[in-house]
Amino acid sequence: MDIQPYTTTETLAVGRPWLMSMLGIETNQSITLDLTAFDQNLHWAEASKYQPERKLKSGIPLGKNTSTGLYEPYAAVTNEVQSVTVTGSPTGGTFTLTWNGQTTAAIAYNATAATVQAALVALPNINPGDVTVTGNAGGPYSVTFAGQYLGDNVAQMTATASLTGGSTPGVTVATTTAGGTATASDGTQLFAGFLFTEVSFYPGSAKAAAPLMVHGQIDVAKLPVAFDPKDIPAGSNTQFIYKV
Fold first, then answer.
1. Which pLDDT band, with edges at 50, 70 and 90, does 230 fall under?
2. CA 20 to 30 Å from 48, out of 66, 139, 154, 231?
3. Is 72 helix (H, G, I), strand (E, B) or coil?
């Protein structure tokens, strides 16, 4: 009998660039998500007008709310959030943001959140993933620190404005949420695992079934949400091997 060798290949990264190995995923658990606890942009993307479904990103770290029994974003630490507000209704001009001694290039008075984020990421002390900026064009903008500044109480940014038009235009910066250790006490401060697949849901949906990955090997640098294994408190699921 002639037996020929058989080879096969397996791609792990399809939809899960953070997954390092298939070993352990057979222990995934079926859970129910509280969709109201997840944020747009950070956790899910708005669909187009032709496709109403929204999609939660795979790889989101999760914790279990002990009151509801539902799973929500893991809340081990509080990330610093600062607001940037353009005041006085300017019609032209620019402003800059300074953080820890480094100043951005000029930012247009009506810049999009993506433009503000790009200006901050261009600073030598901020890497991609260290800040996320949301908000409408022209602000107010919400700047969330993560990445290497995950859970840190960072310095507040300052702004310098060169704006025109409007009524005494300017730019103000305020810290809306100070970074620090966990403030949650509902169970979500304990890490339970990662959302294993993307989860589609329609606007208005409050719950969704999902698979929870409780064992495996993870590249934390490729997760959709900043995650630092060093911040996992006692009592959390620790059945993972992490690569930074």
1. confident
2. 139
3. strand
